[in-house]
Design brief:
Blueprint (H helix, E strand, L loop, with lengths): L1 E2 L5 E2 L3 E2 L12 E4 L3 E3 L3 E8 L7 E6 L2 E9 L2 E4 L4 E2 L5 E3 L5 E7 L6 E11 L3 E13 L13 H15 L6 E5 L3 E3 L4 E8 L4 E4 L2 E5 L2 E6 L2 E3 L2 E6 L8 E11 L2 E14 L3 E8 L5 E7 L8 E4 L2 E2 L6 E14 L2 E14 L5 E9 L2 E9 L2 H43 L76
Parallel strand pairs: 1-3, 5-14, 16-24
Antiparallel strand pairs: 1-2, 4-6, 6-12, 7-8, 7-13, 8-9, 9-10, 11-12, 13-14, 15-17, 17-22, 18-23, 19-20, 19-23, 21-22, 23-24, 25-26, 26-30, 27-28, 27-31, 29-30, 31-32
Organism: Mytilus coruscus
Enzyme class: transferase
GO molecular function: protein serine/threonine kinase activity
Length: 486
């Protein structure tokens, strides 16, 4: 059927709503058991996807306000008791989106009609409600009598029915632990699940900063508790930590989520620094601080600077984009700027502080004269290095060439067609060399009966076979010239 807001029906099962109503749509979920035994209590949980105005939720039982809960920074408070909620009476989640009360039953009531009411301010202010009904079972005696049925039989029937419907309390989850961390120390968050649990478990913890999930963390699970330890916490560990648990009943799997906020007591955290070297140099520092920061202080060397004709200091609030655990997060931060109207060079320091400590950052601006001298010195040193390297390379090349030349002179090249080379043989100590005697060189013939005189001629040679410098031993061939007398 076609249903319009006026209630007129036509031929399709489509509901048309005013498009502006979506801007005011908030989902409220009210959960509780279907049955409760009279004299006992039942936990009822009311949650929404948007925190209600004033962090207040009202519970109405059978037309009468039962309790109003309000979430404060210091805890969960009950309007009925005008004090902080006890653990066995009422509860609030840290993000102010979930509220729970314990409702009692009496014989006079056969059912508990419960309404959860929350007020919201989005485009306009409006109230949204959700309701459930819990049946009260009288196990001690029947409300009706049946002819032929004894009271004992009815009690047994009622008790069996009570066991069959399996009265259940919806799971309740809460985070306990210290949520304020001093820098470099550690804290532990513990998430516990209670109520009627069948098959249950925990998923990864989620860490979010300004609504952006920056990482997921593994908790240490023990029974119905998941514990998360943040060791040596720093500025990037602040934010909302969400514990996610689930409970499976038959084929239905319900998820529960609860969050807590962790604050880190730390000095200002510098995100970026800039030097704008324009006609008037400007030094700038962007930083974050959870606590309200003090006014930044600027120094030139050790002299404190104030606004004057020489220097201008401007401090502003700004929006910064920071990388946290690999994710870009847009945060509300601060910026401080120092303009050097006199262009004075030197060392400048900015001191940032809050009630948790101080952080400083230095800028070193070298004067133009110093910069020029530094350039000259750098140029001279570069020239000297080049000269030394060049001389070393040239010397090395000359040395290599010299060694190569010596080797070539000592080596004999192979030349099969080369002729024999003759060398003079050393003198024999007992033989007089023919060239060392002063004579005519002729043998005179004399008449004598003596035997002929013989001259010994040494034949000296050296054979270089196939270009080898093989020196042979000396062989002496004796030639005899016989001189006969006439």
């Amino acid at each position: 059927m076609f249903k319009e807001e006026s209630g007129v029906e036509s031929g399709c099962d489509i509901t048309v709503r005013n498009p502006h109503s979506y801007a005011l749509s908030v989902n409220i979920k009210l959960t509780g058991p279907e049955y409760v035994k009279f004299g006992e209590h039942a936990w009822v949980n009311c949650s929404s996807d948007v925190s209600p105005y004033g962090y207040i939720a009202e519970f109405i039982v059978n037309g009468v306000t039962f309790n109003s809960l309000q979430r404060h920074k210091t805890g969960c408070f009950s309007a009925n008791y005008e004090t902080e909620c006890l653990q066995d009476m009422c509860k609030c989640s840290n993000d102010g989106k979930s509220y729970a009360v314990r409702v009692g039953s009496t014989k006079q009531t056969r059912s508990l009609n419960i309404v959860c009411s929350m007020q919201f301010k989005l485009v306009r202010s409006f109230v949204q409600t959700e309701n459930i009904s819990i049946r009260v079972l009288d196990i001690e005696g029947p409300f009706i009598t049946a002819e032929g049925v004894s009271t004992d039989c009815w009690k047994k029937y009622a008790y069996d029915m009570y066991r069959a419907v399996n009265i259940r309390h919806p799971p309740v989850m809460e985070i306990v632990g210290k949520t304020v961390c001093n820098s470099s120390l550690s804290i532990e968050l513990s998430c516990s699940l209670s109520g009627d649990l069948d098959t249950y478990g925990f998923d990864l913890w989620q860490h979010a900063i300004d609504g952006v999930v920056v990482r997921e963390l593994i908790g240490v699970i023990s029974n119905n508790t998941s514990a998360l330890v943040i060791s040596s916490c720093s500025f990037n560990d602040r934010g909302d930590y969400t514990c996610i648990a689930w409970n499976r009943k038959k084929r239905k799997k319900d998820y529960l989520r609860t969050s807590t906020q962790v604050k880190v007591n730390e000095p200002p955290f510098i995100v970026a620094s800039y030097l704008y070297n324009e006609s008037i140099p400007v030094l700038s520092v962007d930083y974050l601080s959870d606590a309200e920061p003090n006014s930044p202080r600027w120094f030139r060397y050790k002299t404190s600077l104030v606004n004057s004709t020489l220097f201008t200091i401007i401090n502003t609030r700004t929006t910064l984009v920071s990388q946290i655990h690999g994710k870009e997060v847009t945060l509300s931060g601060f910026s401080t700027n120092l303009s050097l109207n006199n262009k004075a060079r030197g060392e400048y320091t900015v001191m940032l502080s809050n009630r948790y400590g101080e952080t400083e950052y230095k800028f070193n601006l070298i004067s133009e004269q110093s910069s020029f001298l530094f350039s000259i010195i750098l140029l001279v040193l570069t020239g000297m290095v080049v000269f030394i390297v060049t001389v070393g390379v040239i010397g090395t090349v000359i040395k290599i060439n010299s060694l190569t030349g010596d080797l070539e002179m000592k080596c004999y090249p192979k030349n099969p067609g080369r002729g024999a080379i003759y060398y003079a043989a050393p003198e024999d100590e007992n033989q007089v060399h023919v060239y060392n005697e002063t004579d005519t060189g002729y043998e005179e013939s004399t008449e004598s009966n003596e035997t002929g005189h013989y001259m010994e001629i040494s034949d000296i040679y050296e054979d270089l076979e196939n270009g080898r410098d093989d020196r042979h031993s000396y062989e002496f061939s004796h030639h005899y010239i016989e001189v006969k007398p006439d």
